[in-house]
Amino acid sequence: MSKNSTKDNGRNGTPKPGGRAATERLRQERQRAERSAKIRRRTIVGAASAAVLALAAGVAFAVGGSDGGAQAGPLVVPANATSADGTVVTYGKADAAHTLEVYEDFRCPYCEQLETTDGPTMQALADSGTYKIEYHLATFLDKGLGGKGSRTALAAAGAALNEGVDKFKQFHDVLYANQPDERDDAFADTDHLLDLAGKVPGLKTDAFVKAVQDGTYAPWASEVSKAFDKSGVTGTPTVKLDGKKLEVFSNGAAVTPDQYTALVKQAIG
Q1: Disulfide-capable partner of 167 in 146, 163, 180, 217 (CB 3.0 to 4.6 Å)?
Q2: What single string gives the DSSP state of each residue in 209-262?
Q3: Assigned CATH for 34-268
Q4: What's the order of all strands across the beta sheet hosting 238-241?
Q5: From residue 193, how far is each of 42, 75, 205, 214 by CA, in Å?
Q6: Is 31 in a helix, a strand, or coil?
Q7: Main-chain dihedrals φ then ψ at residue 137, nearest 5 degrees
Q8: Between β-strands 81-82 and 88-91, what pairing exists: parallel, antiparallel or unpaired?
Q9: Which residues contact 165 (CB under 8 A, 6 or more apart)?
Q10: How many CB atoms lie within 10 A of CB 82?
């Protein structure tokens, strides 16, 4: 949604030239935001149900290959993954006094808006030691919108994590900076993901390229997705500081970097 909602009227209440077009654009943006919100609410329930059914059936699904096709394989946890089950990615100083939990899906347009608006500020506060960031990643939009882009991107992010936390963070940022429309499953194409990986200096090692092409971390991506489904979080993005949710959206738009910083300061006192 547009951040500006002031009326573009003349002194006599007559719309200025272009006012009608601007109003129509705002209406279309509002409708798109509402559709995306409905998708987020609806598909997270479906994804959680699918995960329970798959677990009950004893079936594991993973993603791999250049087209992101389903592929089963051994579970390989990337180096630098954290938490007891290796499903969390932690960025920042391990001894930071506070923890920022970020729940995202690589296909989520609201996550893209948050990351492109406030991502640099979120990282700067982590770099300064204000908190460390824990990323909890989801793939539920694949089920809601069709395709495999969330899972394939997550598996590629696992390959980046294996190269280093900084490489993961840079690749994470590149994915959001180049996110396709959520209805476009471009992230399902590993060749496209490798092209994007070229934007991260030093990431495209032979090991990284092979891991992405072979879907080495696809089973891990499945485990990360299951952990998200069990988290109780019902939509993305969700941001929590020391367990308390931060309201990082206002009137359908991500808060400004200054507003985000103020939220953090208020939360930690």
Answers
A1: 163
A2: HHHHHHTTTHHHHHHHHHHHHTS---SSSEEEETTEEP--EETTEEPPHHHHHH
A3: 3.40.30.10
A4: 81-82, 88-91, 132-138, 99-105, 238-241, 244-245
A5: 27, 21, 14, 13
A6: helix
A7: -110, 145
A8: antiparallel
A9: 80, 89, 90, 91
A10: 17
φ, ψ of residue 231 to 5 degrees: the values are -75, -20
71 by Cβ neighbours in 10 Å (0-12 / 13-18 / 19+) ranks as: middle
What is the pLDDT tens value at each position of the chain, 269 positions in all? 333 333 333 334 444 445 565 556 556 655 555 555 544 444 444 333 333 333 332 222 222 222 333 446 899 999 999 999 999 999 999 999 999 999 999 999 999 999 999 999 999 999 999 999 999 999 999 999 999 999 999 999 999 999 999 999 999 999 999 999 988 999 999 999 999 999 999 999 999 999 999 999 999 999 999 999 999 999 999 999 999 999 999 999 999 999 999 999 999 98
3-state DSSP of 175-219: HHHCCCCCCCCHHHCHHHHHHHHCCCCCCCCHHHHHHHHHCCCHH
Helix (H/G/I), strand (E/B), else coil: 60: coil
| Sequence ranges of the domains in the chain | 34-268
pTM of the complete model: 0.76
